[in-house]
UniProtKB/TrEMBL annotation:
Source species taxonomy: Eukaryota, Viridiplantae, Streptophyta, Embryophyta, Tracheophyta
Protein name: Purple acid phosphatase 10
Domain of life: Eukaryota
Organism: Citrus sinensis
């Protein structure tokens, strides 16, 4: 065995690894945005973004999400306050003009001294891919018209653009964040929402009127493109001191998701396919230990992902597994311990999380190990080809990332 001189390939490789590690832990600046020091200020209740639409029993808080596994169905949701009104959604494609209709269901709930309006959820099925549809709600009273575009058929070479927002709330900064997303020239086609919606629970007795104001605030985007929902800690609304002992009561009444389509037994963990992506939504605040429903579902779900059909495997959750910030430090650690080996085994591409109001991103730890292996094997393996392949794969989809630093 020869001596390890400074010029030996091994020493060079170690130096490369150190330099590579330095690059990985310091990604540099990617935006000129600087978070302000001041605490976010709530929008007042009479802010224009909270305006109730005019007209008797006018539908408000209109929002849509994907309604099945592959994107051929849409769940349309809205609230009426004067009376239940009809559950009908009238819709037609841009091409056919032939009007169809679907019937939904009405839900109400009480929370302490609050009684909800009439919450409508209606699933429109058998839509064509890649088609613009118009839809009308409020039939019989005040009608309001919106539109959406269905995604392309699920497949490996289907470009698609997702936006990403978490921890939105309803402050002046929340409005800046949503406007920032809407005005981005990349035009996100679907929004991945990584939890903490209205922050109604920070108001006295979890004032559920703030769920209504938030619904009206996001309508301008959520009525026109699907928002894919993830539950955060501000959705739990567990408050036994005022008699509220059912977790997620307001959230689960207001934001329906297609969880049954992926074999889930609860709306807090589920999956969808959209374009070239397989998106798995997990619940940081539902049981996830061994033998729990979420654990068993995920264990059976991951092997179902067909990477030749959906090369992108994306996971959404609220509490991140990696976080160097002092707030919420290591709150995701126990879930990481439970599930990370599966994420490595099934080669999850990217995990999006919220909760920590300080933006961070990293390559995955397994990727860092992979990089190390690549550098060590540089002198005897075609690693450059492997990197080039990885870059080609990355180029097939865009992500527009927006985070709200409002709280
Ligand atoms: Fe949170």
């Amino acid at each position: 065995m020869g001596s390890l001189g400074f010029s030996s390939p091994l020493v060079v490789a170690v130096l490369c690894l150190v330099l590579n590690a330095a690059l990985l832990v310091n990604g540099g600046k990617t935006s000129s945005f600087i978070r302000k020091v001041e605490k976010a200020i709530d929008l007042p209740l009479d802010a224009d973004v909270f305006q109730v639409p005019p007209g008797y029993n006018a539908p408000q808080q209109v929002h849509i999400t994907q309604g099945d596994l592959v994107g051929k169905a849409v769940i349309v949701s809205w609230v009426t306050v004067d009376e239940p009104g009809t559950n009908t959604v009238v819709y037609w494609s841009e091409n056919s003009k032939q009007k169809e209709q679907a019937e939904g269901k009405i839900y109400t709930y009480k929370y302490y001294n609050y009684t909800s309006g009439y919450i409508h959820h209606c699933t429109i099925r058998h839509l064509e891919f890649n088609t613009k549809y118009y839809y009308v709600v409020g039939i019989g009273h005040t009608e309001r018209q919106f539109w959406f575009v269905t995604p392309p058929e699920v497949g490996p070479d289907v470009p698609y653009s997702f936006g990403l927002i978490g921890d939105l709330g309803q402050s002046y900064d929340s409005n800046v964040t949503l406007t920032h997303y809407e005005r981005n020239p990349r035009k996100g086609q679907t929004l991945l929402f990584v939890g903490d919606l209205s922050y109604a629970d920070i108001y006295p007795c979890h004032d559920n009127n703030r769920w209504d104001t938030w619904g009206r605030f996001v309508e301008r985007s959520a009525a026109y493109q699907p928002w894919i929902w993830t539950a955060g800690n501000h959705e739990i609304d567990f408050y036994p001191e005022i008699g509220e002992t059912v977790p997620f009561k307001p959230y689960s009444h207001r934001y329906h998701v297609p969880y049954r389509a992926s074999g889930s037994t609860a709306p807090f963990w589920y999956s969808i396919k959209r374009a070239s992506a397989y998106i798995i939504v997990l619940s940081s605040y539902s049981a996830y230990g061994k033998y729990t429903p979420q654990y068993k579902w995920l264990e059976e779900e991951l092997p179902k992902v067909n990477r030749s059909e959906t090369p992108w495997l994306i996971v959404l959750m609220h509490a991140p597994w990696y976080n160097s910030y002092n707030y919420h430090y290591m709150e995701g650690e126990t879930m990481r311990v439970m599930y990370e080996p599966w994420f490595v085994k099934y080669k999850v591409d990217v995990v999006f999380a919220g909760h920590v109001h300080a933006y961070e991103r990293s390559v995955s730890i397994p990727s860092m190990i992979l990089c190390s292996k690549l550098i060590f094997s540089f002198f005897k393996s075609p690693c450059i080809v492997m990197i080039a392949l990885a870059l080609l794969e990355c180029a097939s989809m865009q992500f527009s990332v927006f985070f709200c630093f409002s709280k």
